[in-house]
Amino acid sequence: MSRSLRLLLVGCGLMGLRHIQGLHEVRRHGLFDVQLAGVVDKLPERAGEAAEAAERLLGERPKAFNELDTALSSLQIDAADICTEPASHNIVAEPLLEAGVSCIVEKPLSMTVRGCRRILDAAGRGGATLAVAENYRRDPANRLAKFVIEGGGLGRWLNALQIVIGGGDAVLLTPWRHRATGGILIDLLCHYTDIFNYYFGSPRRVSAFSTLLRKLRIARTLNGESVRRSEIEAEAEDYLNATLHHEEGGVCNLLANLAASGEGLWRRIVFLENGSLEIPMERTGQSVKISKPLDSDYLSLKPHTLFLGQRPGEPYRVSPQAAAEIYDRDTRTVFPDLLNGYRMDFWEADRKLIALELADFFRCLENGVSPETGGWEGTVAVAIVAAALESSFSGRIVELEDVLELRVEAYQARINQALGLI
User: Fold this and answer.
1) Are 127 and 100 in contact (CB under 8 A)?
2) Which of 67, 79, 151, 391 could covalently link to 102 via disulfide, CB atoms 3.0 to 4.6 Å apart?
3) 3-state secondary structure of 359
4) Residues 331-367: pLDDT tens digits?
């Protein structure tokens, strides 16, 4: 594609504005020649805000629309970037894909596996490219972790642990995430199931328990010097304890308590035969740590320290030569001088990771290759969380293939019904 790619942004809320920031990074680092031709949002003020942000960052003002059909009849576009609420992804993505418009869709691809499969089928019928905007796996820490795991220096992997505890009684970003059709667990945890897929491939079975701990959430806003509190009723579960069983014997544990007040906990660690890897939270820039115990570490253990581990982790050493093998060119471009970790604030790291996912999508359109996180990868990430919720609903272990093939969807039935998918 020798000319500039013309993109339409659909959805101008927080995520849409973040994607404009990502486009700015794409352009600033020369990753791809792309023009934001138009923005669409049902709220005129949000579409206008996005157009202003694009003009400020990209140097040109896209046309603003309040209806997708009007935008499509007024513009010639090559692709669409869908950043609406997940509950509307099918409504937006299916007709675009069927018309042959390639799309990158924010995660989760849909709130149910049936919804994901319908979007996949629409892309197949239209011959369009479908990508899922999954930014977490693009953090350099996850690239490095995968490199070390696959390198074999620590032996085969045995167990991986992801813990997310916090949130308190707050509304988590937006009220829709606490609706049954918003599914805060699916919205958040599909990030982590995608990371597990990236590291290890898909599990075979899933067993889990989930529940709703907080039925009321508090939205807090400043009103002068006082805090205004308003309650919203929560419908979606906020607690999940899941075990992912892999064919080769490895086990992943996923624990999320999004109702915990006070001190929280976030940790991702992979245990292998000969040591462990501790991977930091995305967008923090902290170092991946490795622990490889020696015989002397075991011999020095006491009864009260026997199960506290053998050796503290230390930052994994990456040479400039190894960095060129671990990180692709685009990653090294937006994270210059990258070895193990980086220094920047959350928002700078956030827009760089979004730039990487967008650049991958644009290059797929140019070269006719498949995106790293395509529709199937996005479907599997949703399906693992859905399988955990199905397991809790039925009280039994669930085969992932049965969820992917829509043979098990009793828990999802009410969401499918509410979204008009059945």
Assistant:
1) yes
2) 79
3) helix
4) 999 999 999 999 999 999 999 999 999 999 999 999 9
